[in-house]
């Protein structure tokens, strides 16, 4: 059974899923309904973009190619593949998926930071407070079993336009996962990467 992570909670992936080598990180969300003069109406489409920052032991990116997102779908190691951009969040289940082969992650990359930002948030006057049912989950690709899930409460992130969802990192015990859930005021992905150079 999958673990429902709380903010700041860590799990040992080796212990929770022995022999784990390939994982899928799925991200999903719905747009909250707004109350208008004539009752409920659906808000505008939200384009949330999931990305992975591949960080060194100094929490730094070596180059732009270590940011995997809709404009750079594959890491040069072959270890990370972004399956493409969902522009609206429509539909059930995962809206965006990122595949990771942990055996192919180069030794000098010790942390995979899973982040999400709202595309053109400032222009569209959107924030995570208008998003509901947002989650990030990790699935073992060898058996398609969900290992862990972290659900975000939108109201807590009102005014935030970027988010560090979770990190998968390695230490002496192997690969671990931590639910971070840190909201940011960021005008786009570029702004989010700046502090990691």
From TrEMBL:
Annotated ranges, domain TerD: 1-196
Superkingdom of source: Bacteria
Annotated CDD domains: TerD_like (cd06974)
InterPro entries, A to Z: Stress/Tellurium_Resist, TerD
Pfam families: TerD (PF02342)
Protein name: Tellurium resistance protein terE
Species the sequence originates in: Crocosphaera chwakensis CCY0110
Top-level taxonomy: Bacteria, Bacillati, Cyanobacteriota, Cyanophyceae, Oscillatoriophycideae
